[in-house]
Amino acid sequence: MPAIQPCALLLVVGPDWQVEAASANVAMLGDGRPTTVVGEPLADLIGSKAIHTLRNRMSWLSSDESEVQDFGVEWGDVIFDVRAVRANDHYLIEAELAVEQRLPDGIGMVRSMSDRLTGDDPLRLAELAMRQLTALTGFDQVMLVNRDGAPVASALRGKGPPASLPADKQVRVTADRDAEPVPLMGGEIPKLVSRAAHVAPDEAERKRLAVIGVAATIALPLRIDGQLVGALHALHNSPRRCGAERRSVAHLFAERLVARMARCGWQP
pTM for this structure? Predict the structure, then answer.
């Protein structure tokens, strides 16, 4: 049975905007009722203003492969960073407790970081980028891998584990390897849940991370024209959360990086 990490709330809603599945930590909303959320209208859970904003943002979902995000969203008295994906007429919504205020200019950060990349050697560009991403995320190690999972470039701050990691097709974030998983409530849990970024690692994954001394991870798939060409991995030896908007900046910057590397002759 899939579970979610305790830093995020997961909801699956159907075409009628009723909750069909939810993580058992909906009480983080303040007055949520975990035993009665399934089958209730989403508007009753997060409020009419929040549901209006959410529905407008989710109208941007152009296909079942796309995702949308919204940062610094108020649901009641709690501030969340929200991510949503869809499959057919169902939506998966993840509301992650915000860890920092909105960035002053996320797009400007991507442009500035890109402008600092000089030259036309793909590997040199990747090395420069990994250093910037280590500073941006605060993680011990940031690594770019190709579509086969082979390391392309990495930056290491302090003592960290050298690792080779796969080119994941889904965004995955582990804030604390050993955090207690939160079960999901509902009847038949839809396959859509597998696309959640904050799915709790299973026992085998926790053991694997423990062996290499990693407690927190970020995995971001990188695509060029829709084709997977690699992934960006961030690793940390203690529990750590990187804000969703900061992760989004890292993701956009990394995708601009691999596109530039490909123009300079890199073969992923």
Answer: 0.92
